[in-house]
């Protein structure tokens, strides 16, 4: 069953087009990831789907309800975990949960609260003030709270931003567990490649407000070739010229002093490649099994890091527009 | 719809009782006003006949109104804090209307302000005020609640437009002191110059003070029904204003 359908959705802030005619649909039970740099439009998209912002044009349906005209039904269908904390730290974990439950019209949320706090291993801390919690504990509490009213869909905006690797791994396990055990459809945004890769069933790569690619992580990686032989050299053009003649090579690209050669079974062809390039000075050679990093590079022509630097100006513009 | 109003109210009351130091601390000023100004000026001010003979008794309703005024206006700071800690977002994305959120917040602030006023009420009885009749107490409580709810709404109206707590406190202080000093809490209304008397009659708190005075002392300078109508009218206006500005909060 289709739970989310978005058609030509657009959001403009003054001059800036944060979301530019995007369309997609998400099935029940999926974990769907939006991957892109800061300022790409991920959070804006999520804000529209959770009724906090209204779109400039286009349509979005959540659980069959229009985000513009059926706000309350949409809100009842979703749980949202925002990028910034939204807990009342002067209250206990249980009290934060209780307030949430009552806001969503639950009569007796007590039992459900205990069950969820156990699930995220905060059971023994439930009567402690949240201000004494660590970053990971707070994030787990936010996720548990987002699930309290049994939403069909859970939105997670950068769920592991600023957490240490161990806590991140832990949190990924919880998210998968929620998805499996509660059959909650999960939509998350991230600018971590590994997060999208490990968690998401399907990934949409979003760049400057547009979806540039959307598929399973496996398919996305396969589409850009089986593996990559990365050659560091100052004579990139010559390397490319020599290599394009070989029929077992699918594609070559150049960036930042590297030549990336896409081919099947790169490790078996290293010797051959070295023979062909024997007259060209080479600084290093490495074999890379493609990750989403390469996929991103392939579709946008930049690494996500370069993208973040250039999007800083856009961000500033964006936050100024938001303040108005 | 009641559930959301209740839980927002509950959160405010819960947080209030958790801050014991704030409860005690904010009793300090009313206490000193009562004791020092009350006894200090006892012989200097002549209270209108028929009400009471003691100046302390005369200002006690004014000091109760003062503590409610301060506490209710400052309760708006919670809204500014909720913006900062992000909690406001959590409530705005819930399937409840902003009107409910605003009412819960206003009732919560009014309740805690009333508790604060009741504590001053009790203190003033310890320092010599006669215990009023049961009806008198009910009338006083009614006016205390009206003051609390009105000025909490004013606080929310200010807080809706503010981003930082210091700015909020400055603005509120700027408004609070004229409202308090012009209210006739400290002086009889018939012994002041005309221009001052005019300002006193446009100050909504005047009607609250006089209303409580009627409840506690059995007599007042303004008819209690007039007080009720004036304060009630003010409440409707500021409730409307508060919810209008609350609805327009952007996050």
| SS strand fraction of chain B | under 5%
Q: What's the total helix number of chain B?
A: 12
Helix and strand composition category of chain B: mainly alpha
Derived from helix and strand composition plus strand pairing, the structural class of chain A reads alpha/beta
What's the helical proportion of residues of chain A?
A: 25-40%
Query: What is the CA-based Rg of chain B, rounded?
Result: 18 Å
Radius of gyration of chain A: 23 Å
Order of helices and strands of chain A: EEEHEEHEHHHEHEHEEHEHEEHEHH
Mean pLDDT of chain A: 86
Percent of residues of chain A in beta strands? 25-35%
Description:
The complex is a heterodimer of chains A (324) and B (251). Chain A is an alpha/beta fold and 324 residues long. Chain A has twelve helices and 14 strands. A six-stranded mixed sheet of chain A has the order 6-7-8-3-9-10, sandwiched between helices. In chain A, strands 2-1-4-5 form a four-stranded antiparallel sheet. A four-stranded antiparallel sheet of chain A has the order 12-13-11-14, with helices on one face. Chain B has 251 residues and is mainly α. Chain B contains twelve helices and no strands. In chain B, helix 4 packs antiparallel against helix 9 and helix 7 packs across helix 12. Classes of the chains: A alpha/beta (324), B mainly alpha (251). At the A-B interface, helix 2 and helix 3 of A face helix 1 and helix 6 of B.
Question: Which helices and strands appear, and what pairs or packs with what?
Answer:
The complex is a heterodimer of chains A (324) and B (251).
Chain A: E1 2-13, E2 16-27, E3 31-35, H1 42-49, E4 57-62, E5 65-66, H2 71-77, E6 78-81, H3 93-103, H4 110-119, H5 135-147, E7 153-157, H6 165-181, E8 185-190, H7 193-199, E9 202-207, E10 210-215, H8 217-223, E11 227-232, H9 236-244, E12 249-255, E13 258-263, H10 266-276, E14 284-288, H11 292-300, H12 304-323
Parallel strand pairs in A: 3-8, 3-9, 6-7, 7-8
Antiparallel strand pairs in A: 1-2, 1-4, 4-5, 9-10, 11-13, 11-14, 12-13
Helix pairs in contact in A: 3-4, 3-5, 4-5, 5-6
Chain B: H1 2-18, H2 20-25, H3 28-40, H4 55-74, H5 77-85, H6 87-92, H7 98-126, H8 134-161, H9 165-181, H10 194-202, H11 204-217, H12 224-247
Helix pairs in contact in B: 1-7, 3-4, 4-7, 4-8, 4-9, 4-11, 5-8, 7-8, 7-12, 8-11, 8-12, 11-12
